[in-house]
Design goal:
Layout lengths: L3 E5 L3 H13 L3 E5 L2 H11 L3 E5 L7 H11 L5 E6 L3 H10 L3 E5 L3 H16 L8 E4 L2 E4 L4 E4 L2 E2 L4 H11 L5 E3 H9 L7 H14 L9 E4 L3 E4 L7
Parallel strand pairs: 1-2, 1-3, 3-4, 4-5
Antiparallel strand pairs: 6-7, 7-8, 8-9, 10-12, 11-12
Helix pairs in contact: 1-5, 2-3, 3-4, 6-7, 6-8
Length: 232
């Protein structure tokens, strides 16, 4: 069987279409129709990826996303959102979702997004044995472990890859579109995805996220990483 995917949506028609397209692409698919069932199936199946609708009965998708992230940082989550739910979409990304698809969507587009997220989660974007060090921040690329002042950081797949990419290119300013391409593998997409992930990274590695010292905003361009050397 292929990689396991949990699809969470309370609309049986949507779930069935998504299941058929994913199975046709070679994935092993399990369905859940509400929040409690999603959490139960996640614990039982230990899927490789979750497709998660935000509008769910019982426990809404945002809360499901938060609980899944508290249990497994490494499992990618692709959200399904309605067209007008921009605030929920941003909040979902802040809670740790890796990607999103806006309803109504093409099932083929969803399959491509799933494939892209899984490729990025399995990839090793840096050479084996490479350790990146900046003051008290250490990133072991081979083990995919990041620590700050000796304490391990809880980073999602995308957060880890984004941090590694920026640390490997200190002092260089990148456009958000360039980061989408390099880290997400997207040649197009909502650039607010990068903004949200940078915000989350700052909350985890900066002494004061409101006054960042490592990941700096380059106005009119995007972001650059500045080494702080001996400071923690």
């Amino acid at each position: 069987m292929g990689q396991a995917i949990l699809v969470v949506d309370d609309d049986p028609t949507v779930s069935d279409v998504v299941r058929r397209y994913l199975e046709r692409a070679g994935y092993d698919v399990t369905l859940a129709g509400d929040g409690p069932a999603a959490l139960t199936e996640f614990g039982r199946r230990q899927p490789d990826l979750v497709v998660l609708d935000l509008m769910l009965p019982g426990i809404d998708g945002l809360e499901v996303c938060r609980r899944l992230r508290s249990r497994a940082d490494e499992v990618p989550i692709v959200m399904l959102t309605a067209l007008g739910e921009e605030s929920d979409r941003v909040l979902g990304l802040q809670l740790g979702a890796d990607d999103y698809v806006t309803k109504p969507f093409s099932p083929r587009e969803l399959v491509l997004r799933v494939q892209s997220v899984l490729r990025r989660s399995l990839a090793r974007p840096v050479p084996d044995q490479e350790t990146l060090v900046d003051g008290g921040l250490r990133v072991d690329a081979d083990r995919r472990v990041a620590t700050l002042a000796g304490a391990e950081l809880a980073l999602t797949v995308r957060e880890f890859d984004l941090l590694v990419f920026l640390m490997r290119h200190p002092g260089r300013a990148f456009k958000r579109s360039e980061l989408l391409d390099a880290v997400w593998g997207w040649t197009f997409g909502d650039q607010s995805t990068v903004t949200v992930h940078v915000r989350r990274l700052r909350e985890k590695i900066e002494r004061d996220p409101a006054e960042p010292e490592r990941i700096l905003t380059v106005w009119g361009v995007g972001y650059r990483y500045e080494r702080i050397g001996g400071r923690a």
